[in-house]
Design brief:
This protein is of the alpha/beta class. The protein folds into 2 domains: 9-78, no CATH class; 80-178. 39% of the residues lie in helices and 16% in strands. The chain has 7 helices and 4 strands; from the N terminus they run H-H-H-H-H-E-E-H-E-H-E. The protein has a 4-stranded mixed β-sheet. Strand 2, helix 6 and strand 3 (144-152) form a beta-alpha-beta unit. It starts with 12 loop residues before the first helix and ends with a strand.
Length: 178
């Protein structure tokens, strides 16, 4: 038992005995918690994400994607609104993405395009909708996403849903077959 006390030195022996009895009755509740997102328990990841200000959290991500997002949160938060933040976000999602700035394609100022290579993954309208939401959260407020190029080998993407999403998010979506 430790001699640490919160009572003043000149306190009565009655209160000192009461404090000692309490310490013997109540077990030590201090717990060592691993706060490293790469090694901590999976159930702690949403709390770490909130603590480290991850702007967008999706329960459908894999555990590895969640760990990567939380691990990169400080770095991304420092560069929020830059192409670097978008690149780090796509890295965490294991998506090959290239940002094409407005001056690279003679577009309007502060506009950009995305070139996504999803050859290893099957793209669905739901996944595309989530990707657009991620971009809207992590991009600069004044920038506008003009178009998304999708390099896809599979035929799982439906043109109807693509047209619907492009109307909802005011973004042109083009599928390039390789």
């Amino acid at each position: 038992m430790s001699d640490l006390t919160i009572l003043p030195i000149n306190e009565s022996s009655y209160l000192k005995n009461k404090e000692m009895a309490y310490r013997l009755a109540v077990p030590d509740r201090s717990v060592a918690v691993d706060l490293n997102p790469l090694t901590c328990e999976e159930k702690l990841l949403p709390y770490l994400a909130q603590c480290w200000q991850v702007l967008y959290w999706d329960e459908l991500w894999t555990v590895e994607q969640k760990r990567k997002f939380v691990a990169d949160a400080r770095e991304v938060h420092r560069h929020i609104g830059t192409p670097y933040a978008l690149t780090k976000m796509f890295e965490a999602l294991d998506i090959d993405a290239a940002l094409i700035e407005w001056y690279e394609y003679q577009g309007e100022p502060y506009h950009f395009k995305l070139d996504l290579s999803l050859e290893a993954k099957a793209i669905t309208p739901d996944i595309l909708e989530r990707l657009i939401r991620y971009v809207k959260v992590y991009k600069n407020v004044r920038t506008v996403l003009d178009e998304i190029f999708i390099n896809e080998k599979s035929e799982l993407f439906l043109n109807f849903h693509m047209a619907l999403l492009s109307e909802v998010y005011d973004t042109a979506i083009t599928v390039k077959e390789s």
